[in-house]
Amino acid sequence: MTTMSTKLPKVPVVIVGMGWAGGIIAAELTKAGIQVVGLERGKDRSTADYLMGHDELRYQHRTELMQDLSKETITHRNNLEMRALPMRYYGSFIVGDGVGGAGSHWNGQTYRFLPYDFEIKTLTEKRYGKGKIKSDMPIQDWGITYDEIEPYYDTFEKMAGISGETVEAYGKRSNPYPTGPMLKTPVLKVFEEATKKLGYTPYMVPSGNLSEFYENPDGISRAACQYCAYCENFGCEYGAKADPAVTVIPVARETGKLDLRTHSNVVRILKDGKKATGVVYVDTITGEEFEQPADVVVVASYVFNNARLLLNSGLGQPYNPKTGKGSIGKNYCYQVSTGSSMAFFEDKEFNLYAGAGALGMEIPEFVGDNFDHSNENFIHGAGIRMFQYGARPIANNVVPSGTPTWGPEFKKQSIKYANSYLKVASQGASMPHQNNYLDLDPDYKDAYGMPLLRMTYDYTEQDRELVKYMSKVTRSVAEAMGADIIDTADEQGEFNVNKDTNTHNTGGVIMGADRETSAVNSYLQMWDAENVFVAGASAFPHNSSFNPTGTLGALSYRAAEGIQKFLKQGGSLV
Questions:
Q1: Quick check: is 263 catalytic?
Q2: Which of 27, 145, 207, 434 has fewest C-beta within 10 Å?
Q3: In this structure, is residue 574 part of a structural domain?
Q4: How many distinct structural domains can be found in the chain?
Q5: Is 118 part of a structural domain of the chain?
Q6: Torsion sign across C-alpha atoms 51, 54, 60, 63
Q7: pTM of the shown model
Q8: Which one, of 41, 113, 51, 116, lies nearest residue 71 by Cα?
Q9: Mean pLDDT across the stretch 171-185?
Q10: What one-character-per-residue DSSP string does 256-276 give?
Q11: Which domain does 511 fall in, by range?
Q12: Domain containing 361 — which CATH number?
């Protein structure tokens, strides 16, 4: 990195990161006639890059679309007494890189969070009393209600063409999903029949994989899903999967108001007093350093990178776990996916090689506060679900527990059960803990000499109790399906950054109505720097049991609205 920066002409808005959050905000601002510079550290991508891209080794195992961990990673420790060490390969999560970001390699599961989520502290205490929330769980309301965010959910779903069916247990909707649910395959019918037998109400999961041809309000046309099974970790060759690179970013480009600069890695935000003046970025090909002045800075990269950029720029007060003060890095949450049951069948076979990232069914009975927690030692819940992702040949080799991990018996069982297993999954909510947080690592730096982000995180007693409860539910569903062998993961171990496999990270730059306990307001505008907006799942004060993209998208539309208001009137928007 050079010591001298080339100063560029000032622009109204600069956006850091061109994934879902950055793409939505760029589209909305440029449609309103506002000049935007979009900075993306990776390369440009479009549907053409993925034609015949069914290369499992390249995309899934060698992580073609992800951040290069040899240049920038995170460090992790389970508690404050441990020394954090760098994450050397992907396990727990995958951080996107390039135009589209994580929105290009995601699966497409597009839920809304519950009304309960947005007012979780108020509603939990109202039903169970103040003692229900433990003192070491800094749970808070979001500073916005479901009714207030609902129109933004609707806008996101229409833009992305979300395919689904209305579920009454999840809050009121102003409109049905723009396209109908995906195909109900024989695999999903097994789950449907079993859960109905148990008295539950299964429904098809809302999907960013289009169930039919669709043209959105911006005039973007996309084809229907082909159920090819190459969704997660892959870009969609058909454009059937909602992706910023095929939805919002082309709209922004078409206006002529977006200056999209790829290979541009932002290393710090510049500030003058309590306002940002612009950003400094490095051309990752030449090593040149540039200063981009702007009236508004939008931080819209991944959860980890949002928090890291603010910390490295001295914006906002870093969270201190010993005092509970500060908000940058606070309330990092993951997702609790232990509690699932693998069901093996002796005389049934399924076509497990066809599928899609959001081809699935779920039951609503155990999410949020939809069941009585009076006698339970945890709050919130989990989605009990079954998906048919498509079993790609390299990564999938499922055998019952007790099978040797190599040799003739392993091969025999692998062949026997290759198409004769189903997974009843539990995806649980993640509540914040005072000792789970993000800060800067004191020892390790990236390729540009900037401190890496350090994650301090482990599962809590809340998580372990949730897993115990949900594992009984998944096992009962597997039994109702008629499984001959059932393997249930009924205990939650410690968190391992290289092994746990749920890609959903939230928090670190959380929203709220109180500047003492949050970093941004309901427009994602920073309390401590009014011309900085921080968009993405970093704003979530906790993580629900649902995948975060729909809520991230809704909040990004609201942020775009707030930025336009700020450019006209200035000052705090709430």
A1: no
A2: 145
A3: no
A4: 1
A5: yes
A6: negative
A7: 0.97
A8: 41
A9: 96
A10: T-EEEE-SEEEEEEEEETTEE
A11: 6-569
A12: 3.50.50.60
